[in-house]
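Incident log, structure service

09:12 report received: a user says their structure output differs between two submissions of the same chain.
09:20 pulled the input from the user's history:
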Amino acid sequence: MKESPLVSIILPVYNVELYLAECLDSVLTQSYRNFELIAVNDGSTDNSNNILLEYQDKFLEKLVVVEQPNKGLSAARNTGLDKVKGEFVYFLDSDDWILSDTLEKCVNTLVNDNSDLVVFNAKAFCDDMPIGLLDKLDYTRNLPKEHYNNGHKLFVDSRCEGTYIVQSCCYMYRYHSHPALRFIEGILHEDHYFSTSLFLSSSNIHVLTNRFFQRRIRKNSITTSSLTMKHATGYYETAAILHKELSEKSIQSKELSEYYNYMIYTGIKIEREIRQGHMSFTRKIELISTFKSILTFKERLRIISPRLYKKLVNTLKKS
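09:34 re-ran on a clean worker, output below:
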């Protein structure tokens, strides 16, 4: 009888002593038992590493703890990817947790369907937030199909439905179909590059509606902390790198062009907010020059004059 495939779970850990045990317990209680948990302690200064060491006996050699100086989330995930022994890879964030049947259902889908990738949904939770607000923070893929033979079609449908989910904790993939894929280190919003590259290079994708991933909303996380130029730069760099790499592979479409422009303009909105709504004309021209191979005429107009842009859009709607 063929042995069930090994799943490599990559867990970056940085100063999460309040939440780490709950995350580890959710892995311990998985109904699917053939996994390795690669925990990368990314220079934690709290009690996180001691908690990892305390759990090693509970995991019966399934837990591998890797120590490194603080390099950031992307670098920690890349360190984990370099240690992978499994056929399938799943990323888990150490302040979140997963339902007990997550691995089992994902592996069964990947094996039975011979898929490269299985994607699923997430449920947001927070002790200090009303349910109505939390519902808006769920990750729900409203896709018309359960199976895709083309990653670009999945991308297009996701963008059309307004539910393009790049969160890397919301999918499991076959490692040897994408062995060289790595996160861009040193930037924020790193999932945009990795997930988009993964989706577009996958040819057999299954969509599950299960909300396996339980997403914690907490203060001072990357997604809730005050905006800085590093947030804007993360979008700028991702757009530029994705555009260059996919163009070299002759992967182009209207939807991808809109996605690049979306990321650049998101960066610009962040930059404007940091500058309290003001951006100099010189800075606008600099950005247009930097991204001239990406920006459409409409986006260039939106950067130069948001008012004229709105007038143009309204005129086009009426015509």
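09:41 both user submissions now match this output. Likely a transient worker issue. Closing.
09:42 reviewer note: The radius of gyration is 21 Å. The chain is about 45% helix and 15% strand.
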